[in-house]
C-alpha cells in the first residue's frame, strides 16, 4: 500500500530544537544548536544517547521539489518498492512544495531520506541535520550540471551584457544555479544581478524555463540538468531556446539521510541505495546515470559552498530564518 504523508504531519512533528542541544559539544561550526560536529566533517554526528536514535517503521522518501512532484513520485516508484523490500520497512513518497518544506520535514523528523537540490543541501545539513551520502551517477563518477542562462531562440539577446535592463528570472534565493551562482559568477563578466537587471523569482526551474518560452521573462538562470530533463520528457524543445552562458560544473543534487537514524538500520539502508541499479525510465530521466554514487559532503560540495560564500551567503540559523521570512512575505 502507498503510505501517505502531509504537511500537517511535518508541522505536528516539529520540536523545540534549542532544548535538544547536546551539552559539551566541542564543535558545531554552522550547525544548529541541536547538533554536534565533534569530528569536524561539517555534518551532524550520530547522537550518542540511544534514546535519540530512530528506526522508523514507515520510511519517508522524497526527491527535490523543484519540478513536477507527481512525475517524480511515479518515476521513483520502482526504487521505493525496492527500498521497502530491501529494508523491510513501509516506504512512502513525501510530496513537498518547496526547498524550505523539505528542510523542515527532515528537521521535524517527518522525512528520513531524500534528494536535495545542490544549494539547499547546505541548509539541510546545518538546519535539519541532513547527512549527504550520494549523488546520482554511474560507475565512474557522479552526475554534474552547469548554470545556464537561457533566452528564446528568436530573442534579440545574444550575449550576457544584453540582459541589462531586461526581465530576468532566478528560481529561489537558496538555489545554487538559480540564484547563488549567478550572484557570485555574473559580476565577474560584467553583469551584476539586482543592479543591471531586477531579479524576478519564479519559484522553480521549470517555471523559469516555461516563463522564457511564454515571453513572461526575457532570460532565466537555470540548472542545465533540469532543462535537459524537460527536453527529454517532451515538455520543451531545445531548439526553441538559446544558451548565452554556461558555468563550470556542480554536483546535481545530494541524497541525504537524517542524522539520528539508528546506525544498524542506517547502514542497511545505505547498502540498499548503493546496490540499486536504476530502471530504464530512471536512467532515461537522468541522462543514462544508473546508480547512487557515494560522496563526501565536505569534499564534494566544496564548490557549492564556495560559490555561496562568494555571493555573500551563509547557511547558518540566522540566514535560514531570513530566507523563511522572505518566502512568507511573498505569499
How would you sum up the major sheet? 6 strands, mixed
| Distinct helical segment count | 13
Sheet-strand content, in percent, reads: 15-25%
Number of domains: 2
**What structural class do you assign from the helix and strand content?**
alpha/beta
Please state the average pLDDT score. Answer: 90
Concise structural overview:
It comes from Noviherbaspirillum galbum. Helices cover 36% and strands 20% of the residues.
Task: Please describe what this structure looks like.
- The protein is of the alpha/beta class and 331 residues long.
- It folds into two domains: 7-142 and 252-330, 3-Layer(aba) Sandwich (D-Maltodextrin-Binding Protein, domain 2); 145-250, D-Maltodextrin-Binding Protein, domain 2, CATH 3.40.190.10.
- Helix content is 36%, strand content 20%.
- It has 13 helices and eleven strands.
- The chain has helices at 7-12, 69-75, 77-87, 99-108, 118-128, 176-185, 205-214, 224-232, 263-275, 280-285, 297-300, 302-310, 317-330, and strands spanning 58-62, 90-93, 113-117, 130-137, 144-152, 167-170, 198-201, 219-223, 241-251, 253-258, 291-294.
- The strands form two sheets. Strands 2-1-3-10-4-11 form a six-stranded mixed beta sheet.
- Strand 6 (167-170), helix 6 and strand 7 (198-201) form a beta-alpha-beta unit.
- Helix 3 packs across helix 9 (263-275), helix 4 (99-108) runs parallel beside helix 5 and helix 6 (176-185) packs across helix 12 (302-310).
- The longest helix is centred in the last third of the chain and has 14 residues, at 317-330.
- The chain is globular and about 60 Å long.
- Mean pLDDT is 90; it is low at 1-22.
